[in-house]
Specification:
single chain; about 110 residues; mainly alpha; Cytochrome Bc1 Complex, Chain D, domain 2; binds heme C
Amino acid sequence: MKAHTKIIAASLTFLLGSALGFAAPAAENWDNHCAKCHGADGKGQTKVGKKLKLKDYTDAAVQAKMTDEEIIKVTTEGVMADGKEKMKAFKDELSADEIKDFVAFIRAFKA
Ligand code: HEC
């Protein structure tokens, strides 16, 4: 996705978030809670992201395999693999509405 499209998408999310009175807009939550692994651009090319082999959310094929429900479930409950926590659950830090906002935000990474 081109940078300016992403900025527009982020601003829209912000405006919508403020209009509805959410605690924090998805873009801000993403930067604070998700970007260190998934990357500010959603590509997962951070130091941690590479180690964890994170998916590239700008890839249409990756997006197609992921449902909105999965985005919400994974963010709420986290990811476990081999009995170890790979991604923590965010249900204690973010509200259900904030978590739901990630769906549109993550979808907007798609090129
Ligand atoms: C400690 C690093 C880390 C952080 C921080 C993190 N994640 Fe993840 N995330 C992972 C790992 C590991 C996976 C599982 C591998 C994968 O799906 O790429 C994952 C998977 C996901 C998936 C599932 C993809 C699918 O295919 O179903 C979503 C959606 C997701 N993360 C969203 C988020 C959101 C939103 C945040 C911030 C609130 C976040 N992640 C924070 C490491 C992280």
